[in-house]
Amino acid sequence: YGKENVDSRHSRGRGGETTRFHTVNVAQPVRFSRKCPTGWHHYEGTASCYRVYLNGENYWDAVQTCQRVNGSLATFTADQELRFILAQEWDLEEKTFVRKDQHRFWVGYQYVITNRNHSLEGHWEVAYKGSSEVFLPPDPIFGTAMSEKENVLCAQLQCFHFPTLRHHGLHSWYAENCYEKSSFLCKRSQTCVDIKDNIVDEGYYFTPKGNDPCLSCTCHNGEPEMCVAALCERPQGCQQYRKDPKECCKFTCLDP
């Protein structure tokens, strides 16, 4: 629980006397508003964070970019997770290489071609060893930039910008040349984010984003735990004051 200073209150008692109630340090529940860094979308069902990068990179460069932010190209564990992704507003419309009504991004699957006779035959695989249990996409639409020498294609998930199409979950899966440039979707575990929007490593103390800058917690599995609140003395010689929302026990005096 956080601690909140409450100003003194006055009420009229019996016989017209003024009774003074002075209440300080009332415990109030703290809501932690962030489990992902700025720019990432949080999904409670998988305790994960998701972000679309607009750089327009090939598949292998996209893999490295996701790894640099402690994530990987996204794979999906259930239909509910995919529906969450499809329902998001990813703000892609200003990029020149993306159509305004639809957009594609690399995700963490690869299509392995096993037969090139009359039609391409093959199967989907998860691109990374050690990935958690995931579902595999249905048969893909094959991209136009395919090379006859390529035996491995990379997955693009196509979704739609228009809200009515987006919320109906309409989407397509493409097997595309891995060296084509595209937006891409990274996924990482939820994390602790401090009051100044810094990412906090497991086991470290931090002040979580919320409504109490005097709270100190331990980061455990991306959640603040074992929180302790500092109690602040109200500023001396100051009747009206404002607390700093990001600095513990820092006040601004509002008296003339």
UniProtKB/TrEMBL annotation:
CC per GO annotation: membrane
Pfam families reported in the protein's UniProt record: Lectin_C
Signal peptide residue numbers: none
Residue ranges occupied by any C-type lectin domain in the UniProt entry: 45-187
Domain of life: Eukaryota
Family annotation (SUPFAM superfamilies): C-type lectin-like
InterPro entries documented for this protein: C-type_lectin-like (IPR001304), C-type_lectin-like/link_sf (IPR016186), CTDL_fold (IPR016187), IDD (IPR042378), VWF_dom (IPR001007)
Name under which the protein is recorded: IDD protein
Recorded name of the encoding gene: Dgcr2
